Please model this.
Amino acid sequence: MTSEPSLKFPPASLPESTDKLRSEVRKFLLKSQTELGWTPRSNFMSTFSAEFSKSIGEMGWLGLTWPKKYGGQEKSALERFVVTEELLAAGAPVAAHWVAERQSGPLLIKYGTEEQREQILPKIAKGECYFSIGMSEPDSGSDLASIRTRAKKSPNNWTINGTKVWTSNAHINHWMILLARTEQPSENRHAGMSQFLIDLKNDDIIINPIPNMLGHHEFNEVVFNETAIPLDRIIGKEGNGWQQVTAELAYERSGPERFLSTYNVLLELINSAKNKNDGEIDRTIGKLTAQLVSLRTMSISIAGMLERGENPDVAAAVVKDTGNEFERQVIELTRKALPLEPTLNGNNIEKYESMMAELIMQLPSFSFRGGTPEIMRGIIARGLGVR
Ligand SMILES: Cc1cc2nc3c(=O)[nH]c(=O)nc-3n(C[C@H](O)[C@H](O)[C@H](O)COP(=O)(O)OP(=O)(O)OC[C@H]3O[C@@H](n4cnc5c(N)ncnc54)[C@H](O)[C@@H]3O)c2cc1C
Model:
């Protein structure tokens, strides 16, 4: 069935006032690197540092767009874009607060109860409270509507049964937002789902590690076996889970983290070209930089849409898909231009060879997390009215 095309990138630019903010963030990050001793990392989900997240919270740069009464600063989405972009470009250790600030907090602002907001949002804004995403299941990733985890309501609580998988950092975060069925599946596959707050430290759940290709523990399997949670842990309206989760995914897919995961490698390539006078390398840099500038322009346009309260889900799918392809090209073209053997080398990640080796092992996951290319292209096709 075709529908009205809804793919658009309305022009938006960063106001001049953001220049001051940008230089403040840069200055802070340089100082923080020396004081906290972190090493720039390419993939934004690579390094979890509660110390760093708290220091960003102290600067007032988490929950920047949120109401002041919840610990926010009531600034614009364009200002948030600048902070986000600088954190990623510096390769700062942002994994602790990232999901909570990007999507869980905004979800609670939109759908949570006043008690939930008051309890949780100020802690996220302080960089002290971290969230996991409880969507994927062993047989339900792309086809999220097929989830089987069930939450059953009784007079005193919700009882949950099922298994979530690929749950990033569930072993160290505080909360998970769980998507579960609250009604039997029906003809309308998107009906009968709801979202819940799961206390990862105190609820009766089992968290099993799933090592990634690097052997690192980031993913988990989270098992619910007759897990009882209080009635007031439901987020939003019972049965409205699909609509809510779709709004959450638009936040997840639209930011500059979808094209800056290999930025450190691009910088290496640019630095290496300085005294070489090599036309091939210069052309590669030109090609990649032009793509980066286009992606950035599209991402700023999405920040503008978020600022106006518009739904950017189709545009976000374009940025996510083309952004992941750009990240892949950065690795491929840089490998050709700087053909040094990638070598996993413990923590010596600043060295080009180890940075490259780590990214090669992580690259396949970049297009999977947040939705695969095929799924993004399906959303784009629908947005263009051809599906
Ligand atoms: C680094 C990383 C972190 C993640 N963190 C989380 C997390 O914290 N919480 C969470 O809930 N999930 C998380 N995920 C899971 C992620 O969202 C899923 O991997 C993703 O949605 C794909 O689901 P799947 O792995 O089940 O693959 P599948 O859905 O089985 O897909 C396998 C392949 O089939 C293709 N395919 C599937 N359906 C279609 C279709 N209809 N048409 C065409 N092709 C199709 C896909 O594109 C893909 O290539 C994470 C994944 C990664 C890689």
